[in-house]
């Protein structure tokens, strides 16, 4: 049995599950564990990935949330065999650098997506550059996002963006409620692409930037690129790997 460290979301059912799992399996603590076991939903899984990133330990989630796309089925039994047979997926995050009007910058990582969102009733006006070339001089919209393959079935899919296979060397650039150009539906970019999004009329039309669950308000520009120097492994039950889930998502009603 590998050494485990259990963490749980704040919801009562997740906290109850945490007690049961720790009674059944020894908890070695984060530093000594071989695997981090997260009990909760997809949002909590993302929090755990960020929290334990520097430990470079594989992460295995059990769903006690809503969708649970990044999670495995919650069961107390047979955890040793499930972990031994688990399939792995290596995730590389996006690195966001957000610039604000006061001259400050904020760096953050995102395993799902970096999204820019209007803060007021007025639509945002954005300029989009890819590898220092202006691709859209003025996008009028509610926002725009850059998604990893792992995050392509999350907010990106809700915004009618494409689903990306987990091993695709691609990023999805997807508008949110684009008004002009009305027919622009986004773009597929090579994973090495460097995206810069500049906010036009930032004082009149303020925009916030969000990397997973970290928000920076009143940004003036945001730079996004995949960071392949950072990687984290997620574990999924045999037959229910992340690439299979992403593939199956394309054939649901």
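^ structure tokens above, recovered residues below v
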């Amino acid at each position: 049995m590998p050494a485990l460290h259990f963490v749980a979301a704040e919801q009562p059912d997740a906290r109850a599950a945490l007690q049961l799992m720790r009674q059944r399996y020894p908890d070695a603590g984060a530093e000594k564990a071989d695997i981090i076991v997260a009990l909760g939903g997809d949002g909590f899984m993302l929090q755990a990935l960020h929290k334990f990133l520097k430990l470079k330990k594989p992460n295995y989630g059990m769903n006690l949330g809503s969708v649970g796309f990044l999670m495995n089925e919650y069961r107390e039994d047979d955890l040793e065999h499930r972990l031994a047979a688990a399939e792995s997926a290596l995730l590389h995050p996006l690195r966001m650098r957000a610039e604000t009007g006061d001259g400050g910058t904020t760096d953050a990582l995102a395993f799902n997506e970096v999204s820019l969102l209007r803060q007021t009733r007025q639509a945002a006006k954005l300029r989009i550059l890819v590898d220092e070339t202006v691709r859209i001089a003025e996008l009028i919209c509610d926002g725009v996002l850059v998604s990893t393959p792992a995050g392509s079935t999350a907010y990106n899919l809700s915004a009618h963006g494409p689903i990306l296979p987990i091993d695709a060397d691609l990023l999805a650039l997807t508008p949110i409620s684009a008004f002009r150009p009305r027919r622009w539906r986004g773009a597929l970019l090579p994973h090495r692409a460097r995206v810069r999004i500049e906010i036009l009329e930032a004082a009149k039309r303020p925009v916030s930037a969000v990397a997973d669950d970290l928000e920076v308000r009143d940004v003036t520009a945001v730079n996004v690129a995949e960071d392949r120097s950072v990687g984290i492994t997620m574990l999924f039950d045999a037959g229910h790997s992340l690439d299979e889930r992403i593939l199956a998502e394309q054939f649901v009603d």
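Helices lie at 12-24, 42-51, 79-85, 155-158, 242-249.
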